[in-house]
Amino acid sequence: MKKLMFFLLLVNFSNVKSQSELLIPKEAITVFSINNLNLLQKISVDELIQYEFMEEVHQELFDGSTSEKTLKDAGIDFNQRLNVFYGKNNDYELSGFTFGVSDLTNLFEVFDDFEELQSKYDNTKLYGSFFNNLIIKNNAALLIRFEPSNELVNRQTDSIWYSRGNLPPFDFNEEAFNEEVFETEDSTYLEPIIYNQEELPIEIDDPNEKNYNELRDSVQITLQEALLTNLLDALFIDNLNLVKSDARFSEQLTHPCEATFYFDNSRSFKTANGLWYFQTIMPSIYKDLQELYTGNIILGDLFLNDKSIDFKVKTYYGEKLGDIYSEMNDAKFDKNVTKYIHKGNSAFFTYNVNMKKAYEKAYQTIMPIISAEKNADVAMNVLMLELLNEFVDKDAVFDTYKGSMFATFNGIKKINTKKIEFIYDEITFEYEEQETEAVEDMPVFTLGFSMGREDIPEIILRNLGKLTSKFEKHDDYWVLNNAILEAAPLYMISKNNLFIFTNDVDLAVNHSDGYGTNSLPKKVVRKLKRGGFMNGYLDIAGTLNRFPSDLLNNQQSEMINSLKGKSGKMYLSSSKTTNKLTAFDLKYEFNGTEYSGQHLLDLINTVYIFSK
Amino acid sequence: MLRYYFCFINSAMNKVFLFCLSLLLLLSSCIELIDDITIHNDGSGTFKYTMNLSSSKIKVNSILALDSINGKKVLSKAEIKSKINLFASHLKTQTGISNVSVSINDLELIVKFSCDFTSVSTLQNGLKNALIAINNNKNTEDLNQNWLSYDGEVLKRNIPLFSITLSDHVKELDIDLLKTGNYTSINRFDRPIVKVEKVGAKINPSRTACMLKVNTYDLHKNYSLIDNCIYLSPKKNK
User: Fold this and answer.
1) What distance in Å separates residue B237's CA from the closest CA in chain A?
2) What is the pLDDT of residues A28-46, one digit of tens each?
3) Which residues on chain B place their C-beta less than 8 Å from a C-beta of chain A?
4) Cα dist from A518 to A173, A496, A511, B136, whole Å
5) What ipTM, to 2 d.p.?
6) Element housing B35 (H / E)
7) Phi, psi at A175, each rounded to 5°
8) For residues A541 and A566, is the Cβ–Cβ distance under 8 A?
9) How far is B140 from chain A (nearest CA, A)?
């Protein structure tokens, strides 16, 4: 009986996890795992590569021989997941895919530049191309690019180079090294430096002795091979992969959703370029900060419904970071905010945090870490922070800026400006300038901050008003003339414990106490109050249809135009933050006849375009 | 719409169009352009050119606030001013050109340019040479065209070829924005005008000046709208 149960358990396990995800290396920091490939089967390669985000993938994987082929024809097993992964640390960077294989012959019609290499792993075939390696085990494949970092290659090369008694390989003077900037017809660019022959690594008389660059190339290839061998040994000999090494990822894969997202921020933190100073100069602080981020991981599920796409994300924290976040997000929603969001707005965003609590918790958590560092500069900074903490009236500071804010976008409106016109004398045809009223289109936005001290901005504005006549005080608001693009006024409202910046004259002049019955409906307000620290809403039609396509190139304009025909609404909400996690829900509801997969691809591409 | 305008000012050739007499600037939305030429009996005269973008301040300033558009650098106001001043400094050195003056109102986005010339041909040559000079001494076929000719009795005006070349790139979508702009051409003389060929050109009561005002959208559709031939009365013998 026990044997039967064990057998059933094994069968069940193998059904839950197909082969492809077992090839995701444990070094992966980010993984996007697509469960339902039906959507991809409906799209030809040619159609798919029209998307800009596919451009880079296409350049590496596909060529002319795949014309009119679909992914379905590429020998891919659509009963398995397609996993896209990326990882990086100080020594290497890796990226790739894992997927199921149904037909090797068809697969190699797509991957036609791969050559078979010798494999030492059981039931595993190894292939290589100029940049990538393809490993196939049973019915799953791993396509991977694994590159040692420049720092590692340089370090190893220098070590070998100098151990052989060589002199520094590059002997160029500072003047030659300076990059010269030239202005060309189309743009400013950096002219490549051309070194004199003497400045290049000198070819050594002995043809068997490598010069620096040749040595570096060898080191790079050797390191690449060694790193890849280590990774493959772990995968195919030790059976170590991300599913086994991270239980949270393994559990996430069991969710009945179309795709899963995994991001290990604690490992990403270690490789963050901005932290090199801590790593090298203050290693103990770096180590403590690293501990602070331990357990910081983001997991998400993507659901494709008939008329909506739902992205549910959970951000997990370690204990210390979780304490800071839970204190920071322990803020009561400022109900005054909703008065200033018009019910017909195109987009809004609310952010509700308690900066005072966050400061106190961060001070309590981070100061001991910094104080422990035996470094003169750090000691002086600690002294300064402690004195400020004692002397500064924190109540006044955090009452002025509580941390909560909101922003709205109300589309494009006509706003009044001044312009100069030339008026002609009909007798002489002479002309002179005359200032007249003008109307121009402008995106209308509002940005507001919660505060408990309305007197503070009043003090600032009153004194700024003495400095320049551009500031004008009105009964309910201040106005700074020609503040926006030297043409349009910026209005400032300090009321209802909010300080608001807006270029919406209607809000400033007629609704300085809020929109009243035209503000957000009570149902939405209740939802905002119940939610967590972050909420948002975006009306695709109301926003993208007004997007200034003049500022995009043709390809980007086409993409935006393709989205413009769509009408949909996007909602972002968050849960209450605990010291372990915060959950986010991004829901996109749309109208139209197309299926949600195509909508998703459009959205992914849009995000890609704007994040490039 | 203004993408074309700011892309053109990015390249050296396009910088040319910023300050020249071209109608290229009709590519810009809601733009007011005035070219005003006074020709005396001895063939000398004064040329004034005004570009007024004040009714598009928000749009222009929002683009100037960007580093680049479509991968091409957008010049800052200071750089544009510098290029205009460089053009003026080159023009000052041209034979037959004097009293070169440039005023730039960067708040209202109005550029005014004027110079005196000894003859229409020295004006054309001077402008052409100054444009080539700021274009790193590159010449183009478009610049070889004579768009202005005067024989003492008749003034002929055409549209500059380079403006035709560039205005062909205007997208259909953008063309709508041209509808609010206008181009005004004024020609002044010491003696009366006998007749003008262009229907719609106005002659002042003393018949010493004529003015032709066209909509930039219409001009884009029909370049010959700005062509004109002005016949003057014979010079009086002293």
Assistant:
1) 26
2) 999 998 875 555 655 555 6
3) 1-3, 10-13, 32, 34, 50, 52, 54-59, 61-63, 65-66, 68-73, 105, 107-108, 110, 136, 174, 184, 186, 188, 202, 204-206, 209-211
4) 69, 17, 10, 60
5) 0.81
6) strand B32-39
7) -65, -45
8) yes
9) 14
Instruction: Give the whole-angstrom CA distance, residue A544 versus residue A366.
Output: 42
Return the C-alpha torsion angle A168, A172, A175, A181, nearest 10: -110
- At A40 the three-state DSSP class reads helix
Give how far the C-alpha of residue A409 lies from the chain's centroid of Cα atoms, to the nearest Å. Answer: 22
Highest average pLDDT, of A123-127, A391-395, B2-6, B219-223, comes from A123-127
What token pair was written down for A180? Answer: 């010269």
| pLDDT, tens digit (0-9, with 9 covering 90-100), for A528-586 | 888 888 999 988 777 766 655 555 555 556 656 656 556 788 899 999 888 889 999 99
- Give A342's DSSP letter: B
Strands (E), A40-162: 76-77, 82-88, 92-101, 115-117, 124-128, 133-137, 140-148
- pLDDT single digits (tens) A405-451: 999 988 777 777 888 889 999 899 999 999 988 877 778 889 999 98
Strands A567-574 and A431-450: unpaired
Q: Which of A226-240, A528-542, B125-139 has the lowest mean pLDDT?
A: B125-139
CA-closest candidate to residue A362, choices A321, A319, A316, A397: A321
- Average pLDDT of span A275-289: 64
> Measuring CA to CA, how many Å separate A104 from each of A107, A110, A329, B125?
5, 10, 52, 71
Q: Residue A486: list chain B partners with CB under 8 A.
A: 57, 61, 107
CA torsion, points A129, A131, A136, A141, in degrees to nearest 10? -130
Chain center to CA of A587: 18
Backbone CA torsion sign across B157, B158, B161, B164: positive
Closest alpha carbon to A259 in A609, A29, A600, A605: A600
Q: Would you say how long chain A is, in residues? A: 612
Q: What pTM does this model have?
A: 0.69
**Do A442 and B58 make contact, defined as CB atoms within 8 angstroms?**
yes
Cα–Cα distance between A4 and A10 in angstroms, integer? 10
For residue A223 the two structure tokens come to 């390191």
User: How far is CA B57 from each of CA A469, A488, B3, B63, B200, rounded to the nearest angstrom?
Assistant: 21, 9, 14, 10, 30
User: How many helices and strands (H and E) does chain B possess?
Assistant: 8, 13
Q: Cα Rg for chain B, rounded, in angstroms?
A: 18
What single-letter amino acid sits at A123?
N
Residues with Cβ within 8 Å of residue B151, at least 6 apart in sequence: none
C-alpha A229/C-alpha B40 separation (Å) is: 87
Q: Where are the alpha helices (DSSP H) in B93-158?
A: 120-134
- Coil, strand or helix at B204: coil
